[in-house]
Amino acid sequence: MKLYTCLRIGVSFSVLLVVFYFYSIKILNNKDDVSVEESHKVTKSLEVTTDRIEFKRNDIVLAVVACGDRLQETLNMLKSALIFSKEKLNFIVFAEDNLIESFNQKLSEWKTLTNHAFTYKVMALTFPVKDAEEWKRLFKPCAAQRLFLPNILKDVDSLLYMDTDTLFLTPVENIWSYFHKMNSSQMAALAPEHEDPNVGWYNRFAKHPFYGKLGVNSGVMLMNLTRMRAFQWSEYVVPIYRKYKLKITWGDQDIINIIFHYHPGKLYLYSCRFNFRPDHCMYMSVCKPAEKFGVAVVHGSRGFFHSEKQPVFQAIYRAFEEFRLGGDVFKDFYQPLEAFLEQVQNTNCGHIKDIFLKNVRLYINMEDTS
Ligand SMILES: *[C@@H]1O[C@H](CO)[C@@H](O)[C@H](O)[C@H]1NC(C)=O
Ligand SMILES: *[C@@H]1O[C@H](CO)[C@@H](O)[C@H](O)[C@H]1NC(C)=O
C-alpha cells in the first residue's frame, strides 16, 4: 500500500515536471516572438549570439562594430580605453567575418600584456530582421548593427557604444558614470551634433525630424539596453526606416535622431567634450566645456584621423598607434603626444592643443584636480 502511494506521488510529480518543462519552453519561445517580431529570416550568424554572455549587472561593457578597413582604427580605440581605465573593461566587438580572427588574435595578445585587465568577445554581424543585406549596407558599412543591440544582447543591461573612429582621453568609467546621472525614463546619452545653429547640419539641411534644436551625434552613445527593450526600441527602427528611407543622409544616426525627436524625455544630453569632433575647432573653438574640463573622447569623424586636413586629429591618432600596451604612459604616450601637438599648434585646432592634453595630465597626476 505504502509503496503504491509512493509510486503514485512519484509518477504525478514526474508528469508535473514534464508539463512544467514544456510550458516554460513555450513561454520562452513566445517571449522571443514578441521581441524579434520580424525574425523569420535569421542570418546564419545569429547562432553565434546564442551563447550567453555572462556579464554582471555593474560591469562596464564597451561595444563597437567594425567592418571593411576599420580593423586598426578599432584596435586603436580599444587600446585608448585600456590605457586610462582602472576598472575592468568588457569589450564586445561585432566584426565582419574576415576581421574576426585578427581581432581575436590581437585582443588575446593584449589580454596577456595587460595581465587580464579586460574580457572580450568577438561576434559576427547579426541582423534579426528581414532584409538583413539591406541593413548591412545602410550608410557606412555595418553602422546599422547598433540599432539592434537591445535585441541581440539580451543578457546585457547597459553598454557604451563607440564608433571605430573615436579615442578615449579619459578613463571609460568617467563616461560610464553618466548612467547614474540619468533619470529613470532616460535610456541613452548622446552629445549634440552641433553647438552653433549657424553651421548646424540638421537645422539647415535635414528633411526629417531630429532631436532638439541641432540634433545629436551618435558616435559615443551610452545605451541602457534594459530600458530600450522595455521601450521596444527595435519596434520603432524598422517602420521609421521604411518611412524616411529616402530622406535620411547619415543612416543610423538619423534614425536615432528621429526616435528621440518624438521621445526627447528618454535621452540624456551630455556635453560636446564626450564627443569632440573637428567641427568643434576647425573655424573657432565652440565646445566651451572642453576648454574648461578637457576633451574626454575625441572623434575623428569623416576620416580626419587619417587626413592631412586636420593635423591635430592625425597627431592624436598617431600617438595612440605608436604606444605599446604595457609601456610607460608618461614617457611613451604623453611626451610624444605633446611633441606631435606642438608641431601642429599653428593649425586650426592646434591653438587649443591643451584641451587634448588636460585629461591625460590628470591621469598622470601632472595637473591639480581643482
Ligand atoms: C538600466 O535600467 C534598468 C531599469 O531601469 C536599471 O535597473 C539599471 O540599473 C540601469 N543600468 C544602469 C547601468 O544604470
Ligand atoms: C527625466 O528628464 C527628462 C529631461 O529633463 C524629462 O523630460 C523627464 O520627464 C524626466 N523623467 C523623470 C521620471 O523624471
Annotation field: number of helices: 15
- How would you name the oligomeric state of the polypeptide chains in this document? single chain
CATH architecture of the largest domain: Alpha-Beta Complex
DSSP strand count? 9
What's the shape? globular
Overall pLDDT metric: 86
Rounded radius of gyration (Å) = 23 Å
Question: What is the helix fraction of residues, given as a range?
Answer: 40-55%
Q: Which residue ranges are poorly predicted, with pLDDT under 50 across at least 5 consecutive positions?
A: 24-51
Distinct bound molecules:
2-acetamido-2-deoxy-beta-D-glucopyranose
Strand order of the largest sheet: 3-2-1-4-7-6-8
* Cα-to-Cα separation, first versus last residue: 83 Å
Q: What is the helix/strand order? A: HHEHEHEHHEEHEHEHHHEHEHHH
Count up the domains: 2
Under CATH, the homologous superfamily of the largest domain reads Spore Coat Polysaccharide Biosynthesis Protein SpsA, Chain A
- Which range does the strand content fall in? 5-15%
Write structural notes for this entry:
The chain has 370 residues and is of the alpha/beta class. The chain folds into two domains: 60-270, Spore Coat Polysaccharide Biosynthesis Protein SpsA, Chain A; 277-369, no CATH class. Helices cover 44% and strands 13% of the residues. The chain contains 15 helices and nine strands. The strands form two sheets. The protein has a seven-stranded mixed β-sheet, with helices on both faces. A two-stranded antiparallel sheet has the order 5-9. Strand 2, helix 4 and strand 3 form a beta-alpha-beta unit. The termini are far apart. The structure holds 2-acetamido-2-deoxy-beta-D-glucopyranose (2 copies). One 2-acetamido-2-deoxy-beta-D-glucopyranose binds at residues 157-158, 179, 184, 224, 226-227. InterPro entries: Glyco_trans_8, Glycosyltransferase_8, Nucleotide-diphossugar_trans.
